[in-house]
């Protein structure tokens, strides 16, 4: 166990600034360049407090998904089903709230649905055994179909001030949703940097054979990691439901999972596992958020926006692979 924990410490960040490294510095520079470009193109709008808050709100859901995706990728896996779980969890929340007349019961049901969906992914991957990409690609379609079946493809309205407060409420001038993202980021950072389980996840992704020999229960870890990913998707669904005040079966179908993967890879996650940080993923999220916001403000057509996002993912993978080749990994 000692060797594995040590490997985890070497992979995980040891200090906040000690592991910033070239990757995150490059991301900060890229973010600054994007801010400068769009700020110069739309100086009347971009730097206004309202627009900056809009950027924060826009990346809340993506940020939660990207941090969970980072943990999955670090463990050596990949979860393509998170967008569908977002939609499924909003529908379960809406149905449960409608049937029980209780928003807390609906929230609990929605979160539980995400947890169960993630655990199903883990069970299929571990006991199939099925490749993570294939397994979650299949469940992505299955969970989406289940969400549509719950109300014949129609949305379900939700009534309740307690849920609406999450969508429109503020604390110290910032929306509750942004505070939720900040709290989630702090929790993920502590989990990956300061806990034995977090360090073991790095070791698991870095060298599964050594992790197994060190006594780490790999199957239990893998199932738990995918369950966590599903739960995080349900939390993202909760945020979305609080804004739309409805269960939307098509929620998350607009490439959320690909944006989450893009943000994680931009942040330095290695698709082979064992490498990646929450701070890097959040920098990737901010880059995507600023890019999306800037393209909308400058009236870039939707098709070109999709092209830019796809190119960003390909570029991130190319840069990562070249860095990996130079380091001899």
From TrEMBL:
Membrane topology (UniProt): Multi-pass membrane protein
Annotated Pfam families: BPD_transp_2 (PF02653)
Source organism superkingdom: Bacteria
Keywords (A to Z) from UniProt: Cell membrane, Membrane, Transmembrane, Transmembrane helix
Protein name, per record: ABC transporter permease
Transmembrane segments: 20-41, 53-74, 80-98, 105-126, 132-151, 163-191, 223-241, 278-296
InterPro entries: ABC_transp_permease (IPR001851)
Subcellular location: Cell membrane
Lineage: Bacteria, Pseudomonadati, Pseudomonadota, Alphaproteobacteria, Hyphomicrobiales
């Amino acid at each position: 166990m000692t060797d594995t924990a040590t490997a985890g410490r070497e992979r995980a960040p040891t200090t906040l600034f000690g592991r910033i490294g070239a990757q995150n510095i490059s991301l900060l520079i890229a973010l600054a360049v994007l801010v400068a470009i769009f700020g110069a193109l739309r100086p009347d709008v971009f730097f206004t407090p309202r627009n900056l808050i809009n950027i924060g709100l826009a990346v809340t859901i993506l940020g939660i998904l990207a941090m969970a995706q980072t943990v999955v990728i670090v463990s050596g896996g990949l979860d393509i089903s998170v967008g569908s779980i977002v939609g499924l969890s909003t529908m379960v929340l809406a149905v449960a709230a409608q049937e029980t007349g209780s928003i807390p019961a609906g929230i609990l049901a929605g979160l539980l649905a995400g947890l169960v969906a993630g655990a199903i992914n883990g069970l299929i991957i571990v006991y199939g055994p099925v490749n993570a990409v294939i397994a979650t690609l299949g469940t992505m379609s299955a969970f989406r179909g289940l969400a549509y079946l719950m109300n014949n493809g129609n949305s379900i309205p939700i009534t309740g001030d307690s849920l609406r407060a999450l969508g429109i409420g503020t604390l110290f001038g910032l929306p509750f949703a942004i505070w939720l993202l900040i709290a989630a980021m702090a929790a993920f950072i502590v989990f990956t940097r300061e806990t034995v389980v977090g360090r073991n996840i790095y070791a698991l992704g870095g060298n599964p054979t050594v992790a197994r020999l060190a006594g780490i229960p790999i199957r239990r870890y893998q199932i738990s990691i995918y369950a966590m990913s599903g739960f995080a998707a349900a939390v993202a669904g909760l945020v979305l439901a609080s804004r739309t005040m409805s269960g939307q079966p098509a929620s998350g179908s607009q490439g959320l999972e690909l944006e989450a993967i893009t943000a994680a890879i931009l942040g330095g996650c290695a698709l082979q596992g064992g490498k990646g940080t929450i701070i890097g993923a959040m920098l990737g999220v901010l880059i995507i958020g600023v890019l999306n916001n800037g393209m909308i403000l400058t009236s870039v057509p939707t098709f070109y926006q999709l092209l830019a996002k796809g190119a960003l993912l390909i570029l991130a993978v190319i840069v990562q692979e070249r860095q990996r080749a130079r380091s001899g990994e």
